[in-house]
Amino acid sequence: MEVLVQRFVDFLENEKGLSDNTLQSYSRDIQQYMAYLKDNNISNIAGVNKTTVIAYLLYLQKKGRATSTISRNLASIRSFYQYLHKMNMIEQDPTQNLESPKVEKKLPQILSTQEVELLLEQPKCVDLKGYRDKAMLELLYATGIRVSELISLDLEDLNIAMGFIKCHKGNKERVIPLGSMAISSLKEYTSKARNMMIQSPNEMALFVNCNGRRLTRQGFWKIIKLYKNQAKINKEITPHTLRHSFAAHLLENGADLKSIQEMLGHSDISSTQIYAQLAKNKIKEVYKKTHPRA
Fold it and tell me: N or C: which end of the chain has fewer CB within 10 A?
């Protein structure tokens, strides 16, 4: 069965072009499922039925796994069996018509405009790292791009003269306008810092680490954690927080959901509608605080 798992992971990597993080997640979920089958003396994958899969999901529930984790595990297992069925390695898919547990969507954590300003004030342009960090934070809040998109940006994706960046996802490309503060910070970074930070003149990455190579997600996580602590913001801030704040603040100031959807790169507007719920909650809070008979 280990061979089948490896073939499945290779298929996802070569045919689907998934990211390393997603591949690791699929692989980890399937490996844990395989360990469960082995512990229950199931050595033939073709012998698994729907009851077995349900029993595994109940096993995860008894172990205290979150509903979102169980739902993700089922999605991974479902993809695995769909692959096996497609390759004619099994006759029936035991996950067919098996419903995923309903996951209650949590509203994202956002920063107030004052907190955003405080966070963006933290990087000081007194050294190369300060220029870079200031440009990255300003760019994230100005565009709402994902951190994966931020670290994937190449120098050629930035057009300072026209005031936009290009983000690529497979064959899709979206153009996002930049605000004046982001343009100013990017100008300073590219003219005063980047050329001194890169290790090779052939380096394509827009943002590089102290070794002159493309910045990683882990590297950015440490950066935002550092400035969050410096700003003494008592909220949990993740690399995604500025993206959520970008969308929520646009909506608060009159932007329509369709425009926000396009800027965020959401394929389905239902993903964008969560920010409308945030706006409603804020209105309720304001009402309770200000109405004399609330």
Answer: C
Q: How many domains does the chain have?
A: 2
Query: Does 53 share its domain with 184?
Result: no
Helix (H) or strand (E) holding 178: none
pLDDT band at 134 (very low <50, low <70, confident <90, very high): very high
Q: Write out the catalytic residue numbers.
A: 146, 169, 240, 243, 266, 275
Angle of helix 128-143 relative to helix 241-252, nearest 10 degrees, comes to 50
Question: In sequence order, which residues have a C-beta less than 8 Å from that of residue 255 and are 6 or more positions away?
Answer: none
- Give yes or no for a contact between 48 and 37, defined as CB atoms under 8 angstroms apart: yes
- What the block records as the tokens of 160 is 């300072």
- The amino acid present at 103, given as its one-letter code, is V
Q: Write the CB contacts of 109 (distance below 8 Å, at least 6 apart in sequence).
A: 235, 236, 237, 238, 241, 244
Q: For the ranges 178-187, 229-238, 255-264, which has the lowest average pLDDT? A: 255-264
Residue 23's domain is classified under what CATH number?
1.10.150.130
CB 265 within 8 A of CB 169: yes
Q: How far apart are CA 160 and CA 178, in angstroms?
A: 8
Output the CA–CA distances (angstroms, integers) from residue 19 to 107, 208, 281, in the order listed: 25, 20, 35
CA-CA-CA-CA torsion sign (115, 118, 122, 125):
positive
